[in-house]
Specification:
The chain has one domain: Rossmann fold (3-Layer(aba) Sandwich), CATH 3.40.50. The chain contains 11 helices and 14 strands. A hairpin with a 2-residue loop joins strand 1 and strand 2. Helix 2 crosses helix 3. It is globular, with a radius of gyration of 18 Å.
Length: about 300
Amino acid sequence: MSATSKSRIQRRAAGDNVWLSRSEDSARARLSELSAHALNYEVLDSEEAVGRAMLAELQTVAREKIGDLTVILLGGRGAQAMHRLVGELAKSTQADRLLNRLHVFTQDALAPMRNENSFSFVRDFERLLGECFFKKVKSFTSMRTETNDLEAELVDYLEALDSRGEIDILFLGLGPEAGAASHLAYIKPGSGSSAADLAGVIPVSPSILEHHITKFKAGGSPFTEADEAECRKATHILTLGPATILKAGRIVQSIVDADTAPAKPASYRRLIEREIADDLETRQRQLDENPGLWIRLHPNVRSLILPNVLEQ
């Protein structure tokens, strides 16, 4: 496919999943270099408080660095409070010095799907962040889903992201999976991702598709029956891979929707309590069975949750 002929990107199939990585990267070597960390979480009292804390993290990154910033947004419910705050700030000149420095990227997408579909993360970003935000940021790059060549589009996205160099801050959530496992971005259990994988094209699972639709509805996104029907026909997910997630200078995780996703508390408890093995084969098996654990291999993570995430 055309994805393998561009840049230094190579294609690797793992069952029905396709992962893209740099040809010079060794998954085993990268995994051996990573240390496991405890996930120190902070319990905040409201979704709005989580949104303010996320915005504060972005502002901190801006103060610590001179020049432009590369930011990867979280779609769905987890970051909606922050997006509303940023959208309000964008209507005035108060945050212009920050917004004018931002190169913004998305992290996952259902495909194939029309760009205008209301279940697209991009449409939700437009609704919450508002027109002023998009006029003020330096660039906005999403994973294109209205295409016949998903891999080629994903390579184009990776090259745009790579051109920015360092990822300054990455906002992440956590999705529940069977057996108290979890997905990170949309890396699902059993998809065969490795520490060298930058991004992937993976078949959509019924649980992820239902989770996606449920969280959009719970977040108040307007939709039509036609949009939902098209969304339910999506066959694949474009997602960041572990290598891109672990490349970020700072990760901020937010979990605010345990009320509408009641499996999240069990998934989160398994995430924070699981001991990650030193043996590489065992570690890789743990990560494939429960991809949420990839976040435990990053040294700079702030995990923001509501009290109900710890309830059983």
